[in-house]
Amino acid sequence: MSRWLPRGYLAIVYGLLYAPIIVLVVFSFNDSRTGYEWGGLSWRWYESLFNNRAMVEAMWNSLWLALSAATVSTLIGALTALALHRYRFRGKKVLNGMLFVVMMSPEIVLAISLLALFLLVGLQLGYVSLLLAHVTFCLPFVVITVMARLSGFDERLPEAARDLGANDFTMTRTVLIPVIMPALLAGWLLGFTLSLDDVVVSTFVSGPSYEILPLRIYSMVRVGLKPEVNALGTLLLVFSLVMLMLSQWILTRSKQ
Amino acid sequence: MRSALQQPFKTAVLVLVWGWLLFLVFTPNLLVVGASVMTRDPGSFIALPFSLDAYRQLLNPLYLEVFLHSLYMAAMTTLCCLLIGYPFAWALSKVPKQRQMLLIFLLIVPFWTNSLVRTYALKLILATNGLLNNALLGLGVIEEPVRLLYTEGAVIIGLVYLLLPFMILPLYSVFDDLREDYLRASHDLGAGRWPTFIHVIVPLTLPGVLAGIMLVLLPAMGLFFVPDILGGSRNLLVGNVIKNQFLDARNWPFGAAASILLTLAMAFLMFAHKLSKKRLGEDGV
After folding, report:
1. Potential cystine with B170: which of A132, B120, B128, B211 (Cβ 3.0-4.6 Å)?
2. Multiple choice CATH, A52-254, 2.120.10.30, 1.10.3470.10, 2.60.40.1220, 1.10.3720.10
C-alpha cells in the first residue's frame, strides 16, 4: 500500500472534523447579519454578547458551577481512588461497578434518575441540584485519572512512612497527595470542562433561578441562527483548548 | 483487622464515598425502576397502584415507530462511524509514534469543546442558504439549493460528527496492539491480503469494534439536542421522547420505561463486548 493513501485519508477526515469549527470561528468576526454571506471583519457579535446582561450572568453562573463541581469531584474522586487502591473492604466490586455504570450509562438516563431524586426529596432545582449532578458525572473520570497514577506508584513509600510513625492521615497528606498531584490537576481540568460543556444532564436538573450557559445557548440555537452564538462558541473553544493544553502539559511534564 | 475507631480516616473516606454513590447513583436508579411500574399522577408525578401500562405503552404503534426510526438513525450513525473510523484508526496506527500523539490530541480537541456549539456550527454549513449549498451552486453541481437541514440525513451527519472520536479511540487502541508478526506469519503461511484481513485482522480488532459500537450506538439514541437543532420535529430520538415525557408531558412512568429500555440495550452491548474479549483470550491470542 502506498504511504500517501492512508495519509491523505487522515487529512480528509481531519478536515471534515475541523471544518465546522473553522467556519464558526471565521463567522464570529463576520459583520453580516444574515450569517451566510461575508460582510467584512467586525467585533460586533462579541460586543453584543458582553452587552447582554442575562448572557454575562449565565457565563458567571457556568464558570462558578464548573469551578465548584470540578473541585468537589476532585476531592471525592481522589479519596475514592485512594480507598480503592489502598484498602480492602467489603463491596469494593460494587463500588467499582457503580462508578462504571455512571460512566457508561447514557447521559439521559442519569439525568432523569437525578431529576426524580431531587423532586421526590423536595430539593429546589438550581445551583445545588446542578452541583450534585455535575459532581456525580465527573466523579468516575477523576477516579480513573487518579487510579492510573496510583497504579504506577512505589508501594514501599507508604510503608516507609508508616514505619516512621505516620498514621493514615499524615501518610496520605505527606506521601500520597504529592505523588498524585498531577493526576489531581488533570482530573480537575477534565471535570471543569465536562461540567462547562454539559447539556443533557443540566437540561433536566436546572431551574429558572440559576441559568447556565449551555442552556442559554440551547434556547438560542433552537430558533434560527444567532451570530452571537458564533462569538460565544469561539470563546468557549479557545477556553477549552487552553484547559486541554494545560492538562496535557501537566501530565507529560510529570512523567519526565 | 483494626476496628473503625482505630482507622478514622479509612472510615470517613468510605462513608463519604458510599454515601455519595448510594444517594446519587443507586437510589435514583431505583427510583426510575420504581417509577416505570407505577401509575402516572398529575400531582406527585407517580402514584400507586403498580402497573405495567408504561411498558405496554412502549408497544403503542405511534411510539414504536419513533423508537424504530431512532434505532435506525442510531444504527446508520454507528455504521458510518465504523466505516469512516476503521480505516482511520488503521491509518493512524501506521503514522510515526511522535506524530501519533499530536494527531490523537487533535482528535480529542473537538471532544472538549461544547457539543451544542459544534452542532450549531453544522447548521451554518447545512442550511438552505448555507455554505455547502452556496459552494455547490457556485461550482454548478446543483441548479437550486437542496434542502439538507431538518432531514434524517442532517441528524445522522450531526450524530456522526459528534460521536466519531468515540468510535476511533477504541479502534485505535486495538490497532496499536496489533502485532506485525501475526500479519507476517499469515503472509508467510501463504495467505493473501484479503484472507489475512478476514481471518487475522478482523477477529483481533473485534473487541475494539464492539467497544466503539457501544460508545456510539447508545448516545446516538439519547442526544436529544441534535434532532432539536438539525432534524425538525419528524426525526426524533428515544432521548427526545424521554425528555418530552419527563419535562413536558409529565408522564414519568412512560419516560422511565423508555429509559430502562436504553439501559437494557447498554447492558446487552456490554455483555457482548465482554464475551468477545473473553473468546479472544481463550483462543490464546
Report:
1. B211
2. 1.10.3720.10
- Cα–Cα distance list, A3 to B94, B102, B176, B228 (Å): 9, 19, 18, 42
Determine the distance in angstroms separating the CA of A6 from the nearest CA of chain B, rounded to an integer: 5
From the number of C-beta atoms within 10 Å of its C-beta (0-12, 13-18, 19+), residue B161 rates as: buried
**pLDDT tens readout for residues B168-185:** 989 998 888 877 777 777
Q: How far is B171 from chain A (nearest CA, A)?
A: 14
**What pLDDT, in 10s, does the model give residues A22-36?**
988 988 888 777 666
Q: Greater confidence, B242 or A91?
A: B242
A27 touches chain B (CB under 8 A): yes
| Residue contact A248–B105, C-beta within 8 A | yes
What number of C-beta contacts closer than 8 Å exist between A and B? 219
Collect all residues of chain A within an 8 Å Cβ-Cβ radius of residue B92. 10
Highest mean pLDDT among A74-78, A193-197, B126-130, B210-214: A74-78
Q: Do the chains contact at B9 and A119, CB–CB below 8 Å? A: no
Q: Do B214 and B172 meet the contact criterion of CB atoms below 8 Å apart?
A: no
Domains of chain A, by residue range, sit at: 1-41, 52-254
All structural domains of chain B, each given as residue ranges with its CATH number in brackets, are 60-279 (1.10.3720.10)
Query: Hey, of A113, A197, A247, which one would you mutate to test binding to chain B, going by the most B CBs within 10 A of its CB?
Result: A113
Flag if A99 and B91 touch (Cβ within 8 Å). no
Question: Cα distance from B259 to chain A (closest Cα, Å)?
Answer: 6
**Dihedrals phi, psi of B224, to nearest 5 degrees:** -65, -20
Nearest chain A alpha carbon to B246: A112
Give the global pTM: 0.86
Which ipTM did the prediction report?
A: 0.84
Q: Do B113 and A99 touch (CB under 8 A)?
A: no
Q: Is pLDDT of B37 > 80?
A: yes
For B41, phi then psi, to 5°, come to -140, 125
